[in-house]
Every structure is written in C-alpha cells, then in structure tokens.
Backbone:
C-alpha cells in the first residue's frame, strides 16, 4: 500500500519551480538575467513555440528564460514532444524536458444549476531546440533595431502612458501620491539603455496606480508588500525588455534579493502570482506602443500567464 501511495503522489510543480528560483537567488544570482552583454551579440525574442509561432508568457516565459538551454544557445524555441513529432523532428532519447503550464477557463453547464466557470490548469513538458534532432537551424527573424530606435520605442511608451516624468536629483522612483516618476538626468546614467531599463522599471510601478492596474503600493521599504511589488516590477521589466530588445539590468541591493527569498519561501505560489501580475504590467506598458498594442486573440484564449487564484486542485501533471 505504501509503495502504491508513493508512486501516485502528484508532483508539486509550484514547489519545484519555486525552489529552483530560491536556490539561484540564495547564491546571489538573478536567474532571469543574462550573464553576458546582450548588446554585443545577436539577440532573440522571448521563449517561443516554433510550431505555433506564439511566445510563451508569464510564468512560462520566466521558467524557460532561466533554463541553461536558453542562456547557452541564444535559441528561444521550445515545444512539446508531440509537437516536434508532428513536424517530423525527434526529441533525442534521454533528454530531460522543462515543465510549463497551461491555463484556461472552462464554462460548465449544469442541468439544475447556473452555469459556472472552473479553472483548468495543467503542467506539461517542453524541450528546447537543442534537444531536438531534425529541427531547422534557428534564424533570427530580423536584424535588431539600432539602439536609438529602441530608446525611441521607450519614449513612445512613456509619452502615451500619460505618466508624468520629472527630471532631477540622484534617485529614480515612482511616487504614488503625486503619480509621477522621478528620474536623474540622462547624463547620470552609463548609457541610454541603462536609462531605459530604469525608467521601464519605474513605469512598471506606476502601472499599479488605482486608476490603472490597481495594486497595493503602500508597502514601506523592507516590508513584505514592498518586496512583492519590487519583484513584479523586476519581472515586468524583463518581459518588456525582451520584447523591445533592451536590457532590464536595474541594480538591486542585496536586501532586495534576501526579501524575495523570504516571500518565496513563505508562499510557493508567490512566483506564479508575481509572474501573472508582471505579465499584466508588461501588456499594459506595451499597449502604449503601436507596434505592440494589438493582442493575439488566439493566445489570449489559452492564456499561459496564469491567474493568481489558480488552485492546487486545478494543477495536474
């Protein structure tokens, strides 16, 4: 009986991914940041599925971005065994896949009760292109924009977001009481990509204003609420930076990393909530740029960003 129970225990994918991220953070590494100068090499977009053409979002973008396969190859392509097989490709024997998540709302009709909506959440395995034989060589879709054009993209987002920017002082921050972003002068930054990374981070905080995405921005430095908001801004900066081909390397004090470790240890679902919120923040920011404002209706119908309220009962291997 004990053997049967042991074999049937469901894997806790929340716990597995959370522990992977905690281990990296405790070693002093932000696992979602590239350990090289991205401006000096060819770049690829966010992790994507070559059989559907869709980019992975939310927690899936994060789970795949921290994989060594992504970091060492520069190839963003991931797909399932069946998807590869359907294209005539073959996952090599012995290769270990990476877990990603599928979420969809199901409408259930009852004979004697009102219709109700239940969450469907599934974990499934995908493999990186480097693990698949027969897959065509990866070709970057187009040459990267010149840096000045990428900075112009950030300017467009800032302008159309309606958030006021004030210049001056030696600190960058968003102040909810006045609903404005304070930025040091441009010459205070190492270069314009560093300026862009900082202002994107602060705009992520500004998205939380009540008349925008309405998040809790009342946390004081060192509090759990403050740590959770900083984690969301950090991940949103990653998602937007990947889309605009800009760095997201805003320096983080060691205390930030320590606080993130604490909130993740306290709640194994927190990284999922943070990634879901970060995805919404990124979509809000990118909606203010004409090239990124149009959503993918088909992808939204099978949203892998994951809702914060997704339950353990909805998760099955």
Residues:
């Amino acid at each position: 009986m004990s053997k049967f129970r042991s074999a049937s225990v469901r894997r806790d994918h929340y716990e597995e991914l959370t522990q992977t991220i905690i281990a990296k953070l405790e070693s002093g590494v932000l696992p979602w940041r590239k350990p090289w100068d991205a401006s000096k090499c060819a770049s690829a977009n966010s992790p994507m599925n070559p059989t559907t053409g869709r980019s992975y979002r939310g927690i899936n973008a994060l789970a795949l971005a921290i994989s060594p396969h992504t970091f060492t190859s520069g190839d963003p392509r991931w797909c399932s065994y069946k998807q590869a097989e359907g294209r005539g490709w073959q996952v090599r024997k012995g290769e270990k896949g990476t877990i990603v998540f599928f979420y969809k709302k199901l409408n259930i009709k009852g004979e004697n009760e009102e219709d109700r909506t239940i969450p469907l959440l599934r974990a499934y395995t995908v493999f990186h292109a480097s693990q698949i034989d027969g897959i065509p060589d990866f070709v970057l879709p187009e040459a990267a924009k010149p840096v000045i054009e990428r900075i112009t993209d950030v300017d467009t987002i800032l302008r159309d977001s309606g958030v006021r920017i004030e210049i001056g002082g030696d600190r960058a921050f968003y102040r909810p009481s006045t609903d404005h972003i304070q930025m040091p002068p441009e010459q205070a930054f190492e270069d314009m990509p560093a300026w862009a990374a900082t202002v994107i981070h602060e705009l992520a905080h500004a998205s939380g204003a009540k008349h925008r995405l309405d998040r809790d921005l009342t946390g004081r430095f060192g509090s759990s609420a403050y740590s959770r908001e900083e984690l969301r801004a950090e991940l949103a900066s990653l998602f937007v930076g990947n889309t605009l081909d800009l760095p997201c390397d805003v320096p983080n004090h060691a205390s930030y990393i320590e606080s993130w470790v604490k909130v993740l240890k306290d709640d194994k679902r927190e990284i999922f909530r943070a990634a879901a919120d970060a995805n919404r923040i990124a979509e809000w920011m990118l909606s203010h740029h004409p090239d990124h404002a149009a959503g993918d209706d088909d992808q939204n119908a099978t949203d892998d960003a994951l809702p914060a309220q997704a339950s353990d009962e909805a998760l099955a291997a």
Observations:
- The two ends are 22 Å apart (CA to CA).
